[in-house]
Amino acid sequence: MRGYTRPMPDTPARPELLGELGERIIEVFRHLQAEVTVPREGLVHVTRSESDIMRIVMEIPGTTVTEIARAFGQHKSNTSTRVAALVDKGLLRKESAAADGREVRVFATPAAIENLEKYRDVWAEELDPVTPEDAERLAATVETLAAIADALAARTRVGEPPRG
Q: Which positions make up the signal peptide (predicted)?
């Protein structure tokens, strides 16, 4: 919640810190995600659902439509429609995964990688005025968040339904 900071004791317990971290990550994500879903000149606009698909495909190239659908708990037909839209936008390409051609593997295109780099520039512009000037502190924050993201990704396998 904007403007609200949960009061914390002088030395917060680990669960309190982790809960606060999770809440703050979601809050930052909400702001940065909005930048992806707003059309911008020179960038390929994607919907929230499409950006979720792009994240999985870029993390695990060659993921199948079925695996993507399972990861989000969606119907394969809905995911297939979103993948087709991303193919039309030039961000994904499909290859046959099986000899019978019924399943396809999905890969990001060079245009998708370029689009992500441009969005990283947008995110940098958004974050620059609100982050510490201290490069070491910022690098430590990035390193910590990267370690958390990598550990969570390692725990989650595409093709498994989401926990919950």
A: none
